[in-house]
Amino acid sequence: MTRPRPLVPRGDPADTVKVVGEFGVIGRVLAQAGTARAAQVGPGDDAAVLRAPDRRVVATTDVLVEGRHFRRDWSSAEDIGHKAAAANLADVAAMGGVATALLVGLACPPTTQTAWLEGVAAGLAAECAPLGAAVVGGDLVAAAADSDSVVLSVTALGDLAGRPPVLRSGARPGDVVALAGRLGWSACGLAVLRRGFSSPIAVVAAHRRPTPPYAAGPGAAEAGATAMCDVSDGLLADLGHIATGSGVVVDLERAAVERACLEPAGPLQQVGSALGVDPMAWVLTGGEDHALVATFPARAALPVGWTPVGRVRKGRTAGVQVDGEPAPDVVRAIGAEGAGHVHFG
Question: Do the Cβ atoms of 137 and 46 come closer than 8 Å?
Fold first, then answer.
């Protein structure tokens, strides 16, 4: 005869995944999940069922590993949930779509507090709610016996609402390069945290909870954007994907980027001055703000929230430039370590 698991109150040190059990934890987590507008069958069965009136589904996945993408001593559980959702929801927006649902896979040590997992679930739900999306399923497994780290895998699904997807490969010479959202804030916040500080709180909060301009993605698609991506690894690096995919040169205007991203005497300048760092290093190479960058036909009216920052032109070699200077030269000039984040780099 199997003995029932003991009831442990929330907040008790013994309130762990090992004690509460897989299905007890899943029940608590799903209580935080919210409801997806597109869900016909939600959590609880072998799979969810979503309505897809467009008959196409946008799909994207990100994996977040403790110690590399987040630290529990730097961010609350809710922060981590927000960040995990944002990384995926921004990818859907960058295709011109609107997110409909998330699937979440989680590997954690048996000693993980269930209250912490509920916090992650609450953060995921809060980030999804304004879009009408929610977590509709996933999986919970024990981490390797010798691992104390949490691994979080999130898959986002989205809807194009009848629009063609906006790819990275559509930029054409003469197009305008435009930006929606802010850049450099997350990288600046990370620099602050790495030095053991927690202020300015605005940049630290930006690192903990990015604020992607979700509506700007569908808006750009409606306005005829020719190419688009989210800035997760750095503006120079991510524009490099558009340049390579489209076979063009993307030439940024530094003054325009500064006007779009650096407030006069703002927190990036303050921290940069204190640390001896050119804030443009964070703007051009810092990741995880999940701003959107796109190209538009020269005569197109830019949608609300989009700011022009450069031009697309022909070139013998596809790549990114700033005021006509190749990106590697610009990176060296501003003292950055590289054009952006590269796994295994």
Answer: no
